[in-house]
Specification:
The protein has helices at 20-34, 67-80, 97-110, 141-162, 170-181, 194-200, 203-209, 251-254, 262-277, 322-337, 350-356, 368-381, 414-423, 460-469, and strands at residues 2-7, 10-11, 44-48, 56-61, 86-90, 129-133, 187-192, 217-223, 231-236, 238-242, 282-292, 304-306, 312-314, 341-346, 360-365, 384-387, 405-406, 433-437, 443-444, 454-455. The chain has 481 residues and is α/β, with parallel strands linked by helices.
Length: 481
């Protein structure tokens, strides 16, 4: 089977020779398809050729031939060829390496599968080999290698997020990160267990995890290449299951709460990917892990939690637990890790979904160039981010009656107030901090381009693309955005 790229309903020239009759057939089929109107990138038109070689041609739309279009084309080919053992994709001579990176990323991401039971009859993926026919293979080696790393890191985040929560305890998740990181030289992983968390004052993580017999953890993954002067700290919310605690969720709202640790999965996968790519930037990923359960030892509405560093939170809803564990991790990062750049990633609020829908994450931050760089990295990598405001008039609603803060300001604007709450923990590092609220895009209800049904691994591609743009030095004390 041979896949040929198409743009504006015209075959792109390739180094793969086609017989005149085959080319004429393909052109006629394209002309017929053109009558049906334009088609989006990734659309595939199939030309059967019984008894001939190749036996099928896949005419794949690449749109404007930018990286996004090639990513969609890679996904489209995998979807169309999934019952065949192999397919060859003819790449036009002179194609930019970024296009090939997008093509391979799209194909590998679309080929992802997660299943614990047997495959249903006729299910699964038979496709095992995608061959790229290119005029100059050496030109694309780096692009191919990068795409593979990004796809592996995304698959790791998807696997961790998809795993059901009867298996996915904080201890299990920490062990999986240790195992994955152990396969990459240069990475150091530290896991803090409950006694260590108590001794160090991580009161937020302990409070949220106190209702479960499966105790919390704090995982720290460090990539520190020789000579790197720029330090990016990434923090991901890691609630391995969220019942809502005593402020319990209704049943339907609980069904997908195995995904409430998607931020932690993403940032730890990014640190591993950064090491595999040998990025010249110091990267530390922090994953505060806890299971928010209901029991006699669960934290309660009205409790006052003392966080790492001393700030206190009056608990008004035990279902606003993500910001409570993130507060500890943010305060620790600023006090102990001295980041030049600080980004947290969390499946934090349903309000973000109401505002932006199921495919777009909200991004907050005070520093324009940092936010713009994250938005641009997301656009280039195929993940949408939209900047939201940090409304100062809402800050008084965060005050607690008996504590510094409360964790559930009841004034609406839930995504904004959650971001404002987190900002309180970064102190003087506000100009280095950004927050991504990505509850909805962490999960897909159906197959959509390179996204499978289930966990998407959202954030991995954006953060790896962003980190790859950072310079390894700090000019005049101002890290680049």
């Amino acid at each position: 089977m041979l896949a040929l790229p198409v743009t504006a309903r015209e075959l792109l020239p390739t180094s793969v020779g086609l017989a005149d009759a085959v080319a004429a057939q393909a052109s006629a089929l394209l002309a017929e398809a053109r009558d049906g109107g334009s088609r989006s990138a990734g659309a595939v038109t199939v030309l059967p050729r019984p008894g001939a070689t190749p036996r099928r041609l896949l005419l794949v739309e690449v749109g404007q031939a930018a990286e996004a279009g090639w990513r969609a084309a890679g996904a489209g080919v995998v979807r169309a060829a999934q019952r065949d053992p192999s397919v060859t994709f003819a790449v036009p001579p002179g194609t930019d390496p970024t296009a090939v990176r997008g093509l391979v990323e799209g194909a590998l991401l679309a080929a992802y599968r997660f299943r614990l039971g047997r495959e249903p009859e006729g299910g699964g993926l038979a496709l095992r080999r995608l061959t790229l026919a290119v005029a100059d293979p050496a030109r694309y080696e780096d692009a191919l290698a990068e795409a593979r790393v990004v796809a592996r890191a995304t698959a790791l985040a998807r696997d961790l997020t998809n795993m059901p929560s009867q298996t996915k305890t904080p201890a299990w998740l920490a062990a999986q990160v240790v195992k994955a990181a152990g396969q990459r030289p240069g990475l150091r992983v530290t896991v803090r267990e409950p006694a260590e968390l108590a001794a160090a004052g991580f009161g937020g993580i302990l409070a949220v995890g106190g209702g479960s017999r499966r105790g919390p953890r704090l995982v720290e993954v460090a990539w520190r290449p020789r000579g790197a002067r720029l330090h990016a700290v990434l923090i991901g919310k890691g609630i391995t299951f969220d019942t809502g605690g005593i402020s319990i969720k209704p049943r339907d709202a609980m069904k997908l709460m195995r995904k409430d640790m998607a931020g932690a999965a993403a940032v730890t996968a990014v640190a591993i990917g950064a090491a595999e790519l040998r990025l010249p930037v110091r990267v530390t990923a922090l994953a505060p892990l806890a299971e928010n359960m209901v029991s006699g030892s669960a934290y309660r509405p009205g409790d006052v939690v003392r966080h790492y560093g001393g700030l206190t939170t009056e608990v008004r809803s035990t279902d606003a637990e993500g910001r409570v564990v993130l507060g500890d991790a943010l305060a620790y990062a600023v006090a102990r890790l001295k980041p030049d750049l600080l980004v947290d990633l969390a499946t934090l609020t349903g309000a973000g979904t109401v505002a932006l829908g199921k495919r777009t994450a909200a991004v907050y931050g005070e520093r324009d160039d940092l936010v713009a760089a994250l938005v641009a990295a997301g656009a280039a990598a195929g993940e949408r981010l939209w900047r939201m405001p940090l409304v100062e008039e809402y800050v008084p609603a965060l005050a607690g009656d008996d504590a510094d803060l409360n964790n559930a300001a009841n004034i609406g604007a839930g995504s904004v107030t959650a971001a404002l709450y987190l900002r309180e923990f970064v102190g003087t590092a506000r100009d280095r901090w950004a927050h991504l609220d990505m509850s909805a895009p962490a999960w897909s209800d159906s197959v959509d381009g390179e996204l499978p049904k289930g966990a998407t691994g959202f954030g991995v591609r954006t953060l790896l693309r962003w980190l790859s743009t950072l310079d390894s030095s700090v000019a005049d004390g101002q890290p680049p955005g």
